[in-house]
Amino acid sequence: MSASRTKPGLAGAITADDRLSRRSFIASASGLIAVSVLGLPRAVSAHSSQPMTFPPDALGKPGIATQRIDGLAKVRGDKIFARDYAARDMPGWPATQWHALYLYALSTDHAFLGLDLSSLSKAAQPRRIVYGDDMSKSLRSPKLVRRRDLAIDEKLQQARQTGKQLQGFDRPTGQEFDLIVQPGATPNYLGQAVALLLFDSAVACRAAQREMRFRDTDFQVYATDVSRSENMGEIFPPQTTYVKYDLNGQQFSYASADPASYLAEVPGWQGRIAAEIAAHPDYITQSIACDMQATDPMFLEPEAGLVWYDAETAALNIVLGTQSPDGDVRDLAGMFGSADSPVKVEAINLTPCPPGGGFGGRDSSPFKLMLALAAPFAEGHPVRLALDRFEQFRTGLKRHGTTVKGALTAGPDMSLKLVEMNFAFDGGGRKNLSPYCAALAALCAGGAYQLPMANIFAEARHSQNISGGSQRGFGGPQAYFAIETALDDLAAGQGWDPVALRRANLATETSTTVAGGPIAQELRLAEMLDIAEAHPLWRDRAAIKAEFAARGISYGTGLALSLQAYGTSGDGMVAAVRMAPDGSFSVQSDAVDMGNGSATTLSVAIGEHLGANASSIEMADYDLFGQTGLTTDDPAKQRWANPNWTAKSTGSSSACLTGLHQVHTVKETARALFEGSILPAARRLWQLPDLVSSEVAWVDGFLVDIRGFMPPVSHRQLAQEIHASLRSDEPLPTGALGHAYFQSSWAEADFATAGGTLRLRLDGLATYSAQDQAPTPIPRQNTVGPDALTTRYSRYVWAPCLNVVGLTVDRANGRVEVQNVLSVLNAGRIHVPELVSGQSQGGIAMAIGYALMEDMPEGMEGPANGLWNLNRYHLPRMADLPLATSYAPGVRAQELVILKETPGDGRAGRGIAEAVMCSVAPAISNALFDAVGRRYASLPITSQKILQGLAS
């Protein structure tokens, strides 16, 4: 039971290197750490770095999915998630595993002194106890490197260049946060670990869990005197300020100003805004004051994983379900990369699993650090850490609790003049992605509208609460709730029609955001309002209200718009497409399928160019980037003039990248394979050396000469020609590997291929010559890439959505029942209609819970006390949701109307996983205002709050 005390005292930090491959390296203070991504055991693998495979009879027509590629494995109950695996399942691992259990802080006002486990039975005693002072400083508080958003990372880099030190483990500047609290220290936040218990059997671990559950105070010892945690409430940098002025020929904005002087100029322009408003006494100002609670992502599988430190090979082996494998590997390298690490780590072998749901809650999650932390103390044994639902509620990342204050100003002609908002995000204990979420909320503060003036400020602060992080909407839901409820309040106060007010101010492709960045994308917001106004749910709202009133029931209808951004301020993606000797295709992608269907979508994305869907796909292959020949290092500051440089390698799967970004990358790579290998093979088979792509087409699995000169050739014939050519003097590639970068526009370049020079919207291309060989990079030429200054636009692409909600209120008990939801969505090109529908339905369910049910008190009254599960945290059930898919009088339904694709979409889809959710909560609040004449601006709008409002 006694803990081993080893305190070498680590120091130093890693330097980020984006060049990861199947056997790539990260530079650390103690040398290079090799990084490998391994597949799950083939005998039990259903997913991730082992391919997911369509059954032969389910491939479907090119570009059309007949079923989810992972569907059968999940229905059969195959081993899929990290929780499903034990050490004995992993090739080369010891079969006997230990089990880890963390205990968590109960106070930020008293010093933690230690544990008293004397009351535990003998069967429940741990093999080992690890305290915070049993580990070195760098292991206890590792250096992390974030590359989530280039615009914010630029701000952080500028701060470091002025002398501020690199952030340690998710802490504000100057504040030390430990993974495990040291005895004698006051915990920094609730949910911070105070001890690690290691057990040599699952039986002992389960016995300890049973005996200790709900009895934390019986085992943890704290000082009686008050000793509050230092620096509580300190800022998680950076803060975001968007001030915009675009009147009378004068312009100022974050996007257009000199980055070096922007903040110094802000006060002067804020003064001009105030003077402009003061000069127009006829302007109407509507105040904004709302708040939103923290919520849990409540994904299907609580976090779990395996870790094993192999001393013989100095390798850290880890099995993990994650949204951000690239960042996780770098964080682990930082954890063990210091010269005085307790164990020497020369290699990190990651086996990624499907996360089992994410919604952002697994993006840069600290779980992988807590899992890896156990490895050096397990005496050479693998360790399993599997949170139960109580622990997930207690420690998992949350959507931020947020307070919004401000005002919306309009002229008497309904024209919006100014939006002012101040966002205060409760970041909780760890920094995580809190400032990124706050920054996107600031960008979304203008909603779907053109505003000549804006004054927006957003920040996230450290608190004692459970850590906040990215979650579906990424700050958008808070912003859209604020502006959309304010618009209805403004309309009601002036006697204006709420739709007419919105229509008078809609953003278009010539508008700019509150940051001053151009929208430059077809939105079709007016068309969406037309559809909503003509729909009987809105058109007949007065009659429906009267019908319910006749039955003694209050009914209201609310409408809200959102213009959710997707992607980040700069996104890199990588994909490989390969052709097997039998003519079948496989796809590899750095994307993570969180259950949203990305694997299925990318499997059919190649159909347009290759005449067939992929029969198999590997996800989470972020390490493919190391095979492209590209680097993010640019010491000479050449940017795109450097033929080997790109702005970003890969990123996490938390920014709705599939519909546009990942699909584009797979399609362009498939086009490179067709133009650079398959078409040349057809030229050889047909002996037509001048054949061009416009003279052929795919028909029923055959490449056809549309002029009718030559007989069709099958995929198998083409594949045989390509693979046979490998033995000739003029080999043709069997696959292509492409890297794409998007930042307001795609980077593009020329590449010399076997089929001739191709102009591709890729910034990296490599070709495979055999199944097991690394690809050969092709030097790019005539590169045109996005300008560096466009990062200050913050976002570039948008997914508009309008929601109309009809609901009833029982004035006796305050119960709200959503009767109908109409969602009008501009999704661009639809890749898999069923997946879009599923994303919409999931977004509505999550938004109804966010607006009406999901309540998470702060401090020890909430999940931090370890007592919370689904008995206390209320999610929508089937009875709470309208389930029909088409509106009809008297039927509870959620109807999705998707705008038809137009040439303005550029044959591209949009990231819509967050879009539908963002405007549901304000539509619900607006419907409640219509139903009972009270504004409910504090989420969740529970029955108790309804009754309190009615009583007042």
UniProtKB/TrEMBL annotation:
Residues 534-620, 797-882 form the Aldehyde oxidase/xanthine dehydrogenase second molybdopterin binding domain. InterPro entries: Ald_Oxase/Xan_DH_a/b_sf, Ald_Oxase/xanthine_DH-like, AldOxase/xan_DH_MoCoBD1, AldOxase/xan_DH_MoCoBD2, AldOxase/xan_DH_Mopterin-bd_sf, TAT_signal. GO terms for molecular function: iron ion binding; oxidoreductase activity. Pfam families: MoCoBD_1, MoCoBD_2. Gene3D superfamilies: Aldehyde oxidase/xanthine dehydrogenase, molybdopterin binding domain. SUPFAM superfamilies: CO dehydrogenase molybdoprotein N-domain-like, Molybdenum cofactor-binding domain. Residues 271-506 form the Aldehyde oxidase/xanthine dehydrogenase first molybdopterin binding domain. It comes from the Bacteria. This is Uncharacterized protein. It comes from Paracoccus zhejiangensis. The lineage of its organism: Bacteria, Pseudomonadati, Pseudomonadota, Alphaproteobacteria, Rhodobacterales.
